[in-house]
Recover the amino acids of this structure.
Protein backbone atom coordinates (compact mmCIF):
# COMPACT_ATOMS: atom_id res chain seq x y z
CA UNK A 1 0.00 0.00 0.00
CA UNK A 2 3.03 2.24 0.44
CA UNK A 3 2.91 3.37 -3.19
CA UNK A 4 -0.67 4.65 -3.13
CA UNK A 5 -0.17 8.32 -2.46
CA UNK A 6 -3.56 9.84 -3.15
CA UNK A 7 -4.49 13.32 -2.06
CA UNK A 8 -8.23 12.89 -2.57
CA UNK A 9 -10.56 10.04 -3.33
CA UNK A 10 -14.29 9.49 -3.66
CA UNK A 11 -15.93 6.10 -3.10
CA UNK A 12 -19.57 5.50 -4.03
CA UNK A 13 -21.75 3.06 -2.08
CA UNK A 14 -19.52 3.79 0.92
CA UNK A 15 -21.98 3.09 3.73
CA UNK A 16 -21.59 -0.70 3.72
CA UNK A 17 -19.92 -3.67 2.12
CA UNK A 18 -16.82 -3.22 0.02
CA UNK A 19 -17.25 0.55 -0.28
CA UNK A 20 -17.21 1.00 3.50
CA UNK A 21 -14.23 -1.36 3.73
CA UNK A 22 -12.27 0.71 1.20
CA UNK A 23 -13.01 3.91 3.12
CA UNK A 24 -11.86 2.34 6.40
CA UNK A 25 -8.63 1.02 4.93
CA UNK A 26 -7.86 4.32 3.22
CA UNK A 27 -8.30 6.12 6.54
CA UNK A 28 -5.97 3.62 8.26
CA UNK A 29 -3.15 4.02 5.74
CA UNK A 30 0.12 5.37 7.18
CA UNK A 31 -0.17 8.20 4.69
CA UNK A 32 -3.97 8.61 4.31
CA UNK A 33 -5.54 10.85 1.70
CA UNK A 34 -6.09 14.44 2.69
CA UNK A 35 -9.72 13.98 1.65
CA UNK A 36 -11.79 10.79 1.62
CA UNK A 37 -15.26 11.46 0.24
CA UNK A 38 -17.59 8.67 1.33
CA UNK A 39 -20.66 8.91 -0.88
CA UNK A 40 -23.88 7.09 -0.09
CA UNK A 41 -27.61 7.44 -0.56
CA UNK A 42 -28.40 8.60 2.96
CA UNK A 43 -25.36 9.54 5.06
CA UNK A 44 -27.59 10.50 7.99
CA UNK A 45 -29.66 7.31 7.85
CA UNK A 46 -29.50 4.07 9.79
CA UNK A 47 -27.64 2.29 6.99
CA UNK A 48 -24.74 4.72 7.36
CA UNK A 49 -24.11 4.44 11.09
CA UNK A 50 -20.53 3.25 10.71
CA UNK A 51 -19.67 6.22 8.54
CA UNK A 52 -21.34 8.52 11.06
CA UNK A 53 -19.14 7.06 13.83
CA UNK A 54 -15.99 7.33 11.76
CA UNK A 55 -16.45 10.99 10.79
CA UNK A 56 -15.63 12.63 14.16
CA UNK A 57 -12.44 10.55 14.44
CA UNK A 58 -11.21 11.41 10.95
CA UNK A 59 -11.31 15.07 9.93
CA UNK A 60 -10.28 14.00 6.40
CA UNK A 61 -13.50 11.99 6.00
CA UNK A 62 -16.44 13.76 4.38
CA UNK A 63 -19.73 11.88 4.13
CA UNK A 64 -21.81 13.10 1.23
CA UNK A 65 -25.24 12.15 -0.13
CA UNK A 66 -25.17 10.53 -3.56
CA UNK A 67 -27.81 8.52 -5.41
CA UNK A 68 -25.92 7.31 -8.46
CA UNK A 69 -28.93 7.07 -10.76
CA UNK A 70 -30.00 10.65 -10.13
CA UNK A 71 -28.24 13.33 -12.19
CA UNK A 72 -29.22 16.13 -9.78
CA UNK A 73 -27.82 14.21 -6.83
CA UNK A 74 -24.58 13.57 -8.74
CA UNK A 75 -24.22 17.26 -9.62
CA UNK A 76 -24.88 18.25 -6.00
CA UNK A 77 -22.25 15.75 -4.79
CA UNK A 78 -19.71 17.08 -7.27
CA UNK A 79 -20.38 20.62 -6.04
CA UNK A 80 -19.79 19.52 -2.43
CA UNK A 81 -16.53 17.82 -3.38
CA UNK A 82 -15.38 20.87 -5.38
CA UNK A 83 -16.07 23.09 -2.39
CA UNK A 84 -13.90 20.96 -0.11
CA UNK A 85 -11.07 20.64 -2.59
CA UNK A 86 -10.80 24.43 -2.89
CA UNK A 87 -9.38 24.59 -6.38
CA UNK A 88 -7.45 21.33 -6.46
CA UNK A 89 -8.48 18.17 -8.31
CA UNK A 90 -9.86 14.77 -7.37
CA UNK A 91 -7.28 11.99 -7.84
CA UNK A 92 -9.27 8.81 -7.51
CA UNK A 93 -12.93 8.08 -8.26
CA UNK A 94 -14.06 4.59 -7.25
CA UNK A 95 -17.43 3.69 -8.83
CA UNK A 96 -18.45 0.96 -6.43
CA UNK A 97 -22.18 1.43 -5.72
CA UNK A 98 -24.78 -0.80 -7.26
CA UNK A 99 -27.26 -3.60 -6.99
CA UNK A 100 -27.44 -7.22 -8.05
CA UNK A 101 -30.61 -9.24 -8.50
CA UNK A 102 -30.62 -13.00 -8.52
CA UNK A 103 -32.86 -13.44 -11.53
CA UNK A 104 -32.72 -16.13 -14.17
CA UNK A 105 -33.07 -15.96 -17.93
CA UNK A 106 -36.71 -17.00 -17.68
CA UNK A 107 -37.73 -14.55 -14.98
CA UNK A 108 -35.74 -11.45 -15.97
CA UNK A 109 -37.85 -8.31 -16.52
CA UNK A 110 -37.38 -5.10 -18.47
CA UNK A 111 -37.89 -3.03 -15.30
CA UNK A 112 -35.21 -4.96 -13.50
CA UNK A 113 -32.76 -4.72 -16.36
CA UNK A 114 -33.32 -0.95 -16.54
CA UNK A 115 -32.78 -0.53 -12.82
CA UNK A 116 -29.62 -2.60 -12.69
CA UNK A 117 -28.23 -0.96 -15.83
CA UNK A 118 -28.92 2.47 -14.40
CA UNK A 119 -26.61 1.88 -11.45
CA UNK A 120 -23.76 0.02 -13.14
CA UNK A 121 -23.63 0.68 -16.77
CA UNK A 122 -25.19 4.00 -17.55
CA UNK A 123 -26.22 6.69 -15.13
CA UNK A 124 -23.85 5.83 -12.30
CA UNK A 125 -20.43 5.49 -13.87
CA UNK A 126 -21.20 7.60 -16.92
CA UNK A 127 -22.72 10.65 -15.30
CA UNK A 128 -20.33 10.46 -12.40
CA UNK A 129 -17.28 10.32 -14.56
CA UNK A 130 -18.32 12.07 -17.73
CA UNK A 131 -20.35 14.96 -16.56
CA UNK A 132 -19.79 15.72 -12.96
CA UNK A 133 -16.34 14.67 -11.85
CA UNK A 134 -14.34 14.81 -15.07
CA UNK A 135 -13.25 18.44 -14.57
CA UNK A 136 -11.96 17.57 -11.09
CA UNK A 137 -10.10 14.50 -12.37
CA UNK A 138 -8.57 16.55 -15.19
CA UNK A 139 -7.48 19.15 -12.70
CA UNK A 140 -5.78 16.47 -10.57
CA UNK A 141 -3.96 15.15 -13.64
CA UNK A 142 -2.85 18.64 -14.66
CA UNK A 143 -1.59 19.32 -11.14
CA UNK A 144 0.54 16.16 -11.05
CA UNK A 145 4.28 16.36 -11.72
CA UNK A 146 4.29 12.81 -13.12
CA UNK A 147 3.83 12.13 -16.82
CA UNK A 148 2.82 8.48 -16.12
CA UNK A 149 -0.78 7.37 -15.63
CA UNK A 150 -1.46 6.19 -12.08
CA UNK A 151 -4.05 6.22 -9.31
CA UNK A 152 -1.93 8.75 -7.46
CA UNK A 153 -2.29 11.11 -10.41
CA UNK A 154 -5.89 10.71 -11.65
CA UNK A 155 -7.96 7.56 -12.07
CA UNK A 156 -11.43 6.15 -12.48
CA UNK A 157 -11.83 2.67 -11.02
CA UNK A 158 -15.05 0.92 -12.02
CA UNK A 159 -15.93 -1.94 -9.71
CA UNK A 160 -16.76 -4.77 -12.04
CA UNK A 161 -17.23 -8.49 -11.50
CA UNK A 162 -15.82 -11.65 -12.95
CA UNK A 163 -19.41 -12.72 -13.65
CA UNK A 164 -19.45 -10.02 -16.35
CA UNK A 165 -16.69 -11.81 -18.23
CA UNK A 166 -17.96 -13.27 -21.50
CA UNK A 167 -14.84 -15.40 -21.74
CA UNK A 168 -15.20 -17.03 -18.32
CA UNK A 169 -19.00 -17.20 -17.67
CA UNK A 170 -18.39 -18.10 -14.01
CA UNK A 171 -20.96 -19.77 -11.73
CA UNK A 172 -23.65 -20.11 -14.40
CA UNK A 173 -24.94 -23.31 -12.79
CA UNK A 174 -25.27 -21.61 -9.38
CA UNK A 175 -26.74 -18.29 -10.30
CA UNK A 176 -27.68 -16.66 -13.59
CA UNK A 177 -27.75 -12.99 -12.55
CA UNK A 178 -28.77 -11.94 -16.08
CA UNK A 179 -29.08 -8.17 -15.72
CA UNK A 180 -26.11 -7.98 -13.34
CA UNK A 181 -23.83 -9.94 -15.68
CA UNK A 182 -24.91 -7.91 -18.71
CA UNK A 183 -24.49 -4.60 -16.90
CA UNK A 184 -20.99 -5.55 -15.73
CA UNK A 185 -20.02 -6.56 -19.28
CA UNK A 186 -21.29 -3.14 -20.42
CA UNK A 187 -19.35 -1.48 -17.60
CA UNK A 188 -16.17 -3.18 -18.83
CA UNK A 189 -16.83 -1.79 -22.30
CA UNK A 190 -17.51 1.67 -20.87
CA UNK A 191 -14.20 1.44 -19.00
CA UNK A 192 -12.43 0.70 -22.27
CA UNK A 193 -14.04 3.73 -23.95
CA UNK A 194 -13.24 5.94 -20.96
CA UNK A 195 -9.61 4.85 -21.17
CA UNK A 196 -9.49 5.77 -24.85
CA UNK A 197 -11.17 9.11 -24.31
CA UNK A 198 -9.38 10.20 -21.14
CA UNK A 199 -5.82 8.96 -21.73
CA UNK A 200 -5.03 12.31 -23.39
CA UNK A 201 -6.15 14.05 -20.19
CA UNK A 202 -3.84 11.91 -18.04
CA UNK A 203 -6.64 9.85 -16.46
CA UNK A 204 -6.23 6.12 -15.95
CA UNK A 205 -9.43 4.03 -16.26
CA UNK A 206 -9.57 0.42 -15.09
CA UNK A 207 -12.29 -2.10 -14.24
CA UNK A 208 -11.57 -4.21 -11.18
CA UNK A 209 -13.04 -7.47 -9.89
CA UNK A 210 -12.77 -7.45 -6.08
CA UNK A 211 -12.82 -11.25 -5.74
CA UNK A 212 -15.79 -13.08 -4.26
CA UNK A 213 -16.38 -11.43 -0.95
CA UNK A 214 -18.37 -12.43 2.13
CA UNK A 215 -20.80 -9.52 1.86
CA UNK A 216 -24.50 -9.31 0.94
CA UNK A 217 -23.81 -9.35 -2.77
CA UNK A 218 -21.16 -12.12 -2.68
CA UNK A 219 -23.35 -14.27 -0.44
CA UNK A 220 -26.25 -13.96 -2.89
CA UNK A 221 -24.42 -16.34 -5.28
CA UNK A 222 -25.58 -19.22 -3.08
CA UNK A 223 -22.29 -20.33 -1.50
CA UNK A 224 -19.84 -18.86 1.00
CA UNK A 225 -17.37 -16.69 -0.91
CA UNK A 226 -13.66 -17.27 -0.21
CA UNK A 227 -12.58 -13.73 0.72
CA UNK A 228 -13.24 -11.55 3.73
CA UNK A 229 -13.84 -7.91 2.90
CA UNK A 230 -10.45 -7.00 4.40
CA UNK A 231 -8.61 -9.54 2.23
CA UNK A 232 -10.36 -8.27 -0.87
CA UNK A 233 -9.61 -4.64 -0.14
CA UNK A 234 -5.97 -5.24 0.76
CA UNK A 235 -5.61 -7.00 -2.57
CA UNK A 236 -7.36 -4.19 -4.43
CA UNK A 237 -5.31 -1.45 -2.79
CA UNK A 238 -2.14 -3.34 -3.78
CA UNK A 239 -3.43 -3.53 -7.34
CA UNK A 240 -4.33 0.18 -7.32
CA UNK A 241 -0.75 1.03 -6.25
CA UNK A 242 0.66 -0.88 -9.18
CA UNK A 243 -1.60 0.42 -11.97
CA UNK A 244 0.14 2.22 -14.81
CA UNK A 245 -0.16 3.08 -18.50
CA UNK A 246 -0.38 -0.60 -19.52
CA UNK A 247 -3.43 -1.17 -17.30
CA UNK A 248 -5.68 1.60 -18.55
CA UNK A 249 -8.70 0.14 -20.33
CA UNK A 250 -8.17 -3.32 -18.83
CA UNK A 251 -10.35 -5.51 -16.60
CA UNK A 252 -8.29 -6.87 -13.70
CA UNK A 253 -8.92 -9.40 -10.94
P1 LIG B 1 -23.37 -4.38 -1.28
O1 LIG B 1 -24.68 -4.83 -1.79
O2 LIG B 1 -22.91 -4.85 0.05
O3 LIG B 1 -23.35 -2.76 -1.25
C1 LIG B 1 -23.81 -2.06 -2.36
C2 LIG B 1 -23.62 -0.58 -2.09
O4 LIG B 1 -24.11 0.16 -3.22
C3 LIG B 1 -24.39 -0.08 -0.87
O5 LIG B 1 -23.65 0.90 -0.22
C4 LIG B 1 -25.65 0.53 -1.51
O6 LIG B 1 -26.23 1.56 -0.71
C5 LIG B 1 -25.03 1.14 -2.73
N1 LIG B 1 -26.04 1.48 -3.73
C6 LIG B 1 -26.92 0.66 -4.36
N2 LIG B 1 -27.69 1.34 -5.24
C7 LIG B 1 -27.29 2.64 -5.13
C8 LIG B 1 -27.69 3.84 -5.75
N3 LIG B 1 -28.66 3.86 -6.67
N4 LIG B 1 -27.06 5.00 -5.41
C9 LIG B 1 -26.07 4.99 -4.50
N5 LIG B 1 -25.65 3.90 -3.85
C10 LIG B 1 -26.24 2.73 -4.18
O7 LIG B 1 -22.28 -4.73 -2.41
P2 LIG B 1 -20.74 -5.16 -2.23
O8 LIG B 1 -20.09 -4.27 -1.27
O9 LIG B 1 -20.65 -6.61 -2.06
O10 LIG B 1 -20.21 -4.87 -3.72
C11 LIG B 1 -19.59 -3.65 -4.04
C12 LIG B 1 -19.10 -3.70 -5.47
O11 LIG B 1 -18.26 -4.84 -5.72
C13 LIG B 1 -20.23 -3.81 -6.48
O12 LIG B 1 -19.87 -3.05 -7.62
C14 LIG B 1 -20.26 -5.29 -6.85
O13 LIG B 1 -20.80 -5.54 -8.11
C15 LIG B 1 -18.78 -5.60 -6.82
N6 LIG B 1 -18.56 -7.02 -6.60
C16 LIG B 1 -18.84 -7.60 -5.39
C17 LIG B 1 -18.59 -8.95 -5.21
C18 LIG B 1 -18.84 -9.61 -3.90
O14 LIG B 1 -18.49 -10.80 -3.77
N7 LIG B 1 -19.38 -8.94 -2.89
C19 LIG B 1 -18.02 -9.78 -6.30
C20 LIG B 1 -17.78 -9.07 -7.52
C21 LIG B 1 -18.04 -7.73 -7.65
P3 LIG B 1 -27.54 1.30 0.25
O15 LIG B 1 -27.01 0.75 1.54
O16 LIG B 1 -28.09 2.68 0.41
O17 LIG B 1 -28.44 0.36 -0.48
Amino acid sequence: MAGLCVRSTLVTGANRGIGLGIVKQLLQMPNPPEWVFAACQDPKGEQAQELQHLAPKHPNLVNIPLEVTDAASIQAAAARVREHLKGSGLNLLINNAGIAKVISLDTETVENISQVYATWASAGPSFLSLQAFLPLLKKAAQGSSSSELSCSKAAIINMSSIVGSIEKICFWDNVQYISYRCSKAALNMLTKFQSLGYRQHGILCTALHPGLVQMDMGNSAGHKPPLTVDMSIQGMLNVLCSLSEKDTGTFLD
Summary: The two ends are 17 Å apart (CA to CA). The longest strand covers residues 35-40.
